[in-house]
Amino acid sequence: MASVLSLIRVRVAAGRTSDLGSLIEVAERSLDSAGKLAHRLMTAARKTPHQSDSLFQLNDALLSMSDLLRCIAGEGIALRLALSDSVTRIRCDSHLLECAIINLVINSRDAMPKGGIITIETGNTYSPKGDDGQEYVSLCVTDSGSGITSDVLEKVFEPFFTTKPPGVGTGLGLPMIRHFVDRAHGHIEVHSTPQQGTCIKLYLPVAAES
Asked: Is residue 105 a contact partner of residue 145, using CB atoms and an 8 Å limit?
């Protein structure tokens, strides 16, 4: 949201107002997503069961969000979609999934203050543990940023833990993503090398055919 408002401010200052309508629409969608995220946080805190799981195609969800995700990434960062044609449908809370994707892109963006590349890739795979026979749809968000050291990597899912400056990060993004993945009966992996980038991979179970 902050990146979209900053972009609007720059455009206004430069007298480039022809596309402000689309940027304002993106800002409104960001606010709506933030409101939904706040609601999910409160729901999770109360441990109230969700009743909003739906059956959908992950690629379609990513394509519908692509403009918003590019605005969140901001100028100087290329966002690439590498979506497999073979991806099958999943069943999960679509709002939590959208919030997870947004948080992953924000984290990647913040790891690349000088610019870089964010790649969002999908595919069909099996459990990373290889022991349950379940087929999964994978969602992998990779950046070319600063990476994460091994000591920090052990703490990334701890609530309120953040390496970002005060006022920039809440330390709730990755814990909420972990909550979403656990609720969907999936898995999450984080692979990172300092100064070479980070890959966060979600495994979401393929929906059983009804």
From this structure: no
